[in-house]
Design goal:
Structural class of chain B: alpha/beta
Strand order of the largest sheet of chain A: 2-1-5-8-10-12-14-16-18-20
Distance between the termini of chain A: 62 Å
Structural class of chain A: alpha/beta
Radius of gyration of chain A: 22 Å
Helix content of chain A: 10-25%
Largest interface: A-B, 22 and 32 residues
Shape of chain B: globular
Strand order of the largest sheet of chain B: 6-9-10-3-11-12
Order of helices and strands of chain A: HHHEEEHHHEEEEEEEEEEEEEEEEEHHH
Oligomer: heterodimer
Largest sheet of chain A: 10 strands, mixed
Radius of gyration of chain B: 18 Å
Number of strands of chain A: 20
Number of helices of chain B: 9
Number of helices of chain A: 9
Strand content of chain B: 25-35%
Strand content of chain A: 35-45%
Order of helices and strands of chain B: EEEHEEHEEHHEHEHEHEEHH
Number of strands of chain B: 12
Helix content of chain B: 25-40%
Largest sheet of chain B: 6 strands, mixed
Chain lengths: 433, 251
């Protein structure tokens, strides 16, 4: 008699996990089942999946991740303060995928800003109920499907019309595990008509292992709302992060987004913005500074579905060591979307022979009265400028630093929170040391 | 100050300098004149340490130290300054940040503490007057959007800030109108001292009306074919470079 031991793939383990957990998960079980089915059919993207071909996520899941999140140490208020960059913000802590109100500045949050545990809100809050799952479509991406099926919530933020926009809201994602864990936080941010807010999401790994974070944030801007959304990623050398943002921008609303990737061994950013009402506007800024074996893949989609909208995108990257950068920027201009203005620029500097950048602008324009442009460039550091600086007595390392900072400045200058800007500049300097 | 002996240098395998020898003592101003393609700018580049230029033979000693063994930044810190023929525009690097980094890197090399911000700004203000450079340096990037004249004045301003022992001016007069030329030359003359030397590279005699040299060298086909007092420049201006050409062939 022979015994065959068959190794169960992580993908199948996820499905098993789903079936076990389903009775305890919030929201509509049918929607979760449909999402789980989509995931089980598609599986993890591979190098044959066009949108994931450079990073082939399936390779990461040849090994196993746990689902239980066991923090290595007890997080204190002092830790939170340290990780929150000294910003004067309302801090909202997500530890290993779960919202921790006790460590968040809940008591300070002024009237007009509603913050809840998403899992509860989807059952008790009409706004959460109306918007949850409405924008992120499981069919669009296996990671959205997976998050939709298995997420156990995160934070729900609702900014009412007259809410004060006095301090930013800072969602601090902290990963701290003893064993490698698969985490799926889910957030929902809704701004009412004319509401204004600033949202910062930062990602920190303080534990010793490489967990995988499949984070998804849905954002809904009602007409004339304004949101500045910063994503700041420096996961040390421990993190694997896939961060999806699905934003819906209504008429006259403005969505400004900033993505700074200054760390993390493997980072994939999916940023999808749908301009769904006339005169909606979005600005997408990104900066990625990579070294060692880091991989950072920025996929952005701007979807102009109606006339008179405006989008502007500027992503810049610096790659050193054996790092790999990927930029893929899709712009759709739908047949009705006349008088669209859509601009996109991606610029890169390679500092070493072993560093790589794959950049691809992708414009699909189905309207005829539009202004669209895209440009991409990849180069090395300007040797002539480097020589000029050195002839003035400046050390080569300092000269390189000045030039790279100058290159990054165009994006960093867009940051309107002075403390955050300083913090990012300091981190850039640290990386260049 | 600087001794150049039998200097041969090539670019991409092509020999440009074919045995240049000259000696500059403290306080002296040496002019190097020559037609296009004679190797004038190559000499300036080799002195500053540009990597594309390969020295195949000869030596350069700068205050007793082997210049050719030094990186461009060490040459600068030892007191050599090159005013570029084409100053480089560096978008995003502010003039002030650039100069402060330069001064402090030089001071560190010399074992001096970093300059206080207050002293630095006072120095900037003082030296800007020297070349009538009235632009808001703090807010602007290095040479970005500067006119031709402003760029050249900025070179002399930087030289004044860094106080080198030897200033090499590579066709600083090119592209300048007569007013800008006068301002630039005045700036250089202000910096002349018994301890500071200059090598002034120029195509035209005009500049030497303002910066009066102690010696004039004529560079032709990679060699110094004639050396004389300042009157040599006038003779060359009068007779033209063809005079050198035929004269050299006769030799």
């Amino acid at each position: 008699m022979t015994r065959v031991t068959e190794k169960i793939s992580f993908q199948d383990q996820l499905i098993t996990r789903f079936e076990e957990r389903l009775p305890f998960l919030f929201g509509d079980p049918e929607a979760r089942k449909a999402a789980a089915l989509l995931f089980s059919e598609k599986g993890f993207p591979t190098r044959r999946t066009e949108d994931y071909k450079y990073i082939a996520p399936d390779i990461l899941f040849k090994k196993e991740y746990g689902f239980r999140a066991d923090p290595v140490r007890i997080l204190t208020e002092a830790d939170v303060k340290k990780l929150s960059m000294g910003l004067n913000a309302y801090v909202l802590v997500i530890l290993n995928g779960a919202f921790i109100p006790e460590l968040s500045s809940i008591s300070e949050i002024p009237p007009g800003i509603i913050v809840h545990n998403l899992a509860d809100a989807v059952h008790s809050d009409e706004t959460a109920k109306a918007h949850y799952g409405r924008y992120a479509q499981p069919a669009a991406d296996p990671f959205i499907a997976l998050n939709t099926a298995l997420n156990e919530g995160g934070i729900f933020i609702h900014i009412l019309k007259d809410a004060p926009n006095d301090r930013p809201l800072h969602i601090l994602h902290i990963t701290d595990n003893a064993t490698e864990t698969f985490l799926q936080p889910r957030n929902l941010v809704v701004l009412d008509d004319n509401a204004e807010a600033v949202l910062i999401e930062s990602f920190e790994t303080i534990g010793p292992v490489k967990s995988f974070n499949n984070a998804l944030t849905e954002i809904a801007l009602a007409p004339n709302a304004i949101l500045d959304h910063y994503r700041v990623q420096w996961e040390g050398q421990a993190g694997h992060l896939l961060s999806t943002v699905q934003a819906n921008v209504s008429a006259g609303a403005l969505y400004n987004t900033f993505t700074f990737t200054l760390g993390g061994v493997w980072v994939r950013n999916n940023l999808n913005v749908v301009l769904s009402g006339k005169k909606a506007e979005t600005h997408l800024f990104g900066l990625y500074l990579l070294s060692g074996n880091q991989v950072c893949d920025n996929h952005t989609v701007v979807d102009h579905t109606v006339p008179d909208c405006m989008s502007n995108e500027l992503y810049k990257g610096v790659m050193n060591g054996k790092s790999t950068g990927i930029f893929n920027g899709k712009i759709f201009v739908r047949p009705d979307a006349q008088k669209t203005n859509a601009f996109q620029t991606n610029r890169n500097i390679l500092l070493s022979d072993d560093a790589t950048i794959n950049t691809k602008p992708q414009l699909e324009i189905y309207a005829d009265d539009v202004k669209c442009s895209h440009g991409t460039s990849t180069g090395r550091i300007d040797e002539e400028a480097l020589f000029y600086l050195r002839t003035r007595g400046i050390a080569e390392t300092h000269a390189r630093k000045l030039l790279i900072r100058a290159f990054a400045e165009e994006v960093v200058d867009q940051v309107e929170i002075d403390l955050l800007k300083e913090y990012i500049e300091t981190r850039i300097d640290d990386i260049l040391q | 100050m600087i001794t150049i002996k039998n200097l041969h240098a090539s670019v991409e395998g092509k020999e440009i300098l074919r045995g240049v020898t000259m000696n500059v003592r403290p306080g002296e101003v040496h002019a190097i004149m020559g037609p296009n393609g004679s190797g004038k700018s190559t000499l300036a580049s080799v002195l500053a340490g540009r990597e594309d230029y390969e020295v195949t033979e000869g030596e350069i000693y700068f205050n007793g130290k082997n210049l050719l063994e030094m990186s461009p930044e060490v040459r600068a810190r030892e007191g050599l300054f090159l005013a570029f023929q084409y100053p480089v525009e560096i978008p995003g690097v502010s003039n002030i940040n650039f100069l402060r980094t330069a001064i402090n890197d030089i001071r560190e090399y010399r074992g001096q503490p970093a300059m206080e911000a207050k002293d630095f700004l006072a120095l900037v203000k003082e030296k800007q007057k020297l070349v009538e450079l009235d632009i808001r340096l703090a807010n602007r990037s290095v040479n970005e959007g500067f006119s031709g004249g402003e760029k050249k004045r900025n070179e002399i301003f930087q030289m004044a800030m860094l106080e080198p022992k030897l200033g090499v001016l590579d066709e600083t007069d090119s592209g300048l109108d007569i007013d800008a030329l006068r301002i630039v030359a005045n700036g250089v003359n202000e910096l002349r001292s018994k301890d500071r030397s200059f090598i002034v590279i120029t195509h035209y005699q005009r500049l030497l009306d303002y910066i009066v040299p102690d010696f004039v060298h004529i560079l032709f086909d990679g060699q110094i074919v004639r050396t004389g007092p300042k009157e040599l420049a006038l003779e060359l201006e009068e007779k033209g470079y063809d005079w050198i050409r035929t004269h050299t062939v006769e030799l």
